[in-house]
TrEMBL record:
GO terms for molecular function: lipid binding. The chain crosses the membrane at residues 257-279. This is DegV family protein. PROSITE patterns: DEGV (PS51482). The keyword Transmembrane helix applies. The keyword Cytoplasm does not apply.
Length: 281
């Protein structure tokens, strides 16, 4: 028996979580001096509203006691465990989980407790988790699941844009001049993830040009796109997500999509507005 675990940065739709019985461990959201469990006590709509009201929202790691309790519980029930975590370059949760997994693995030698660094976030991470869950359901061994998804972490692409760079600037990810230009001149940054880190790619002016360019990049980087499931996540802008889906269908013959709103973790760091697409190179 194998149990697949991840964290709430994966932005998986509830129907996929329930379908494959994936255990999603919550990050902690700090708002107005109170702590909330991501996706349990608070949702991204609450975060977007707080940001619009000018409130600061902070996040912290999945608590160590939660990681330990979940892994220990499953291991004691005879489950092999696989935790697939948010990029270690963007959060310390994965490194904490790896240490705890090693401790639980030593306590229960009859089972295997393993971790994989997705080097990803949002639906890029979520699609890696879903693939692991599908493989588990189809009878794959833990070793084979780990081998396949480690390969996928090297192929998954994130191409996204946000409406205001100040939240990324606050986290120390861009220079002040870039944040000012993005806010004042309405330049839309195109960002991607390389080796688990968010990096600027280029700039576009206006939503139409932005979406066309995102589709161009998907075309340039994607492999066999018409047979992939494409992830699209948005920051309280479902219309833009649907526009992007339609363009991908028309131009690149993409057929299968998972569309979801980003969760609390990324909402706090990216702010309101924006859209991203996730696929395999």
């Amino acid at each position: 028996m194998i149990k697949i675990l991840t964290d709430s940065a994966s932005d998986l739709p509830e129907k996929i979580i329930k379908r494959y019985k994936i255990d999603v461990l919550p990050f902690v959201i700090n708002l107005n001096g109170r702590e909330y469990r991501d996706g349990i006590d608070i949702n991204s709509k609450d975060i977007f509203q707080a940001i619009r009201e000018g409130k600061e929202v902070f996040t912290s790691q999945v608590p160590q006691n939660i990681l330990y309790q979940r892994l220990e519980t499953y291991a004691s029930q005879g489950f092999d465990c696989l935790y697939i975590g948010f990029s270690s370059k963007l959060s310390g949760t994965y490194q904490t989980a790896r240490m705890i997994a090693k401790e639980v693995d030593e306590k229960f030698p009859e089972v295997n407790v393993a971790t994989v660094d997705s080097l990803a976030g949002s639906l890029a991470q979520g699609m890696i988790v879903e693939r692991a869950a599908i493989m588990k359901e189809n009878g794959a061994s833990l070793h084979n699941i780990i081998q396949k998804i480690q390969q996928q972490t090297k192929k998954v692409e994130h191409i996204f844009s946000i409406d205001d760079l100040k939240h990324l600037y606050r986290g120390g990810r861009i220079r002040l001049s870039s944040a000012w230009l993005g806010s004042v001149l309405k330049i839309k940054p195109v960002l991607h993830v390389t080796d688990g880190k968010i990096e600027p790619l280029e700039k576009q002016r206006g939503n139409k040009r932005l979406l066309r360019r995102i589709v161009d990049i998907v075309d340039e980087r994607g492999d066999n796109l018409s047979h992939q499931t494409i992830g699209i996540a948005h920051a309280d802008d479902e219309n833009k997500a649907l526009q992007l889906r339609n363009m991908l269908m028309e131009r690149l013959n993409c057929k299968q999509f998972v569309i979801n709103q980003i969760g609390c973790v990324l909402s706090a760091h990216l702010g309101v507005g924006g859209v991203g697409v996730f696929f395999n190179a």
